[in-house]
TrEMBL record:
This is tRNA N6-adenosine threonylcarbamoyltransferase. It is found in: Cytoplasm. It holds the Pfam family TsaD. Belongs to the KAE1 / TsaD family. The gene is tsaD. The keyword Calcium does not apply. GO terms for cellular component: cytoplasm. PANTHER family: TRNA N6-ADENOSINE THREONYLCARBAMOYLTRANSFERASE, TRNA N6-ADENOSINE THREONYLCARBAMOYLTRANSFERASE, MITOCHONDRIAL. It catalyses: L-threonylcarbamoyladenylate + adenosine(37) in tRNA = N(6)-L-threonylcarbamoyladenosine(37) in tRNA + AMP + H(+). Keywords: Acyltransferase, Cytoplasm, Iron, Metal-binding, Transferase, tRNA processing. It comes from the Bacteria.
């Protein structure tokens, strides 16, 4: 089966061609991503109307590149299914991808499946070269961490997801972005904080890990961001110059506080729900310390662990094509361009 995946939920215009062989082997034939991140950087976050305009401007070019790289000459003859993100995401941005996908499906008479972007992130683990699909055992506990989401999701089978905990306010990626802005580092903040933290001393300015001792599996990040804000304000009031070392120390302390609660709650939830594996996913799964620490914690618990290859941690359409495949396997009857509509607030449960 050959699937054309389309993603425009935020600030990446992405199209991929994916093959699934009869023996279930997955081959990513192309995975083109056109990022708008530099355009939004000056606003410190994604501007929906600007994102939509850029998607509309670029999507044809991204399709041509994806088809060319995959060696697809004729969509009608060579593609079996079209998959497009229909939520969650920015309405104006989602509409562009959906309208484009509908036109392609109508023109080439193809089934069209709407894909949950967050399921796409979870399935990005299946794209790893080393991933052994036959050895997958459920339930899998997923830690899904991105710019808009911080969730623990129990996956009991393909297409069976249960939300067991989530952030009560800011997402962890959003907290990285906000603290990076406070430190004057630029956008997106995650990779910048993570790099700076390598030079920092995390014990110099201890910051709190909100909700780390709460019995549930929820998270909260607005308090941590505020603690960083007050720390900076207090330092400025003492006329201390915020030199690179101080910034690195704050970055290290913030990163430690932000990650510790993720790791501890994931491990506790894995034990409580008798998880057979722990999977990490979402944009923040690019964080090298999180990858290292969660892997070590899962290994210590004796639970198999998976994280996406770095090529698939951020938004991409290969994961959307794959999630579209699983959604279509489960229910092919509704895969029609005539009825697909966006769901900007789509969520688990
Ligand atoms: N190395 C890193 N360390 C920490 N955070 C990171 C790192 N790399 C990226 N991020 C964060 O990941 C987020 C982007 O992830 P992603 O693209 O999946 O989010 P999104 O698609 O905007 O949101 P969602 O997937 O919830 O709709 C940003 O907040 C960014 O700062
Ligand atoms: Mg995302």
């Amino acid at each position: 089966m050959t699937i054309l995946g389309i993603e425009t939920s935020c600030d990446e215009t992405a199209i991929a061609v994916l093959d699934i062989a009869d023996d279930q082997t997955i081959t990513v034939r192309s995975n083109i991503i056109s990022s708008q991140v530099h355009l939004h950087a000056e606003f410190g976050g994604v501007v929906p109307s600007l994102a939509a305009r850029e998607h509309a401007k670029n999507i044809n070019r991204v399709l041509e590149a994806a088809l060319k790289e995959a060696g697809v000459l004729d969509i009608e003859k060579e593609v079996d299914l079209i998959a497009v993100t229909y939520g969650p995401g920015l309405g104006p941005a989602l509409i562009v991808g959906i309208a484009f996908a509908k036109s392609l499906a109508m023109l080439h008479d193809k089934p069209l499946v709407g894909v949950d972007h967050m399921r796409g992130h979870i399935y990005s683990n299946w794209l790893n070269k080393s991933f052994d699909r036959k050895s997958v055992k459920f339930p899998i506990l997923n830690l899904l961490v991105s710019g808009g989401h911080t969730e623990l999701i129990l996956m009991t089978d393909y297409e069976e997801f249960k939300l067991i905990g989530e952030t009560q306010d800011d997402a962890v990626g959003e907290a990285f972005d906000k603290v990076a802005r406070l430190l004057g580092l630029g956008y997106p903040g995650g990779p910048l904080i993570s790099k700076l933290a390598e030079q920092g001393n995390l014990e110099r300015f201890p910051l709190p890990s909100p909700m780390i001792n709460s019995k549930n599996f929820d998270f909260s990040y607005s308090g941590l961001k505020t603690a960083a804000l007050y720390l900076l304000r207090d330092l400025k009031a003492t006329n201390i110059e915020l030199d690179d070392q101080i910034k690195a120390d704050i970055a290290a302390s913030f990163q430690h506080a932000a990650l510790e609660v993720l790791i501890q709650k994931t491990i506790r939830a894995a034990q409580e729900y008798n998880a057979q594996a722990i999977f990490l996913s979402g944009g923040v799964s690019a964080n090298s310390l999180l990858r290292k620490k969660l892997h070590a914690a899962a290994t210590e618990l004796g639970i198999p662990y998976s994280q996406p290859d770095l090529a698939y941690t951020g938004d991409n359409a290969a994961m959307i094509a794959l999630a579209g495949y699983f959604a279509y396997q489960k229910n092919s009857a509704t895969a029609q361009w005539q009825t697909l509509d966006m769901k900007p607030n789509l969520g688990f449960n």
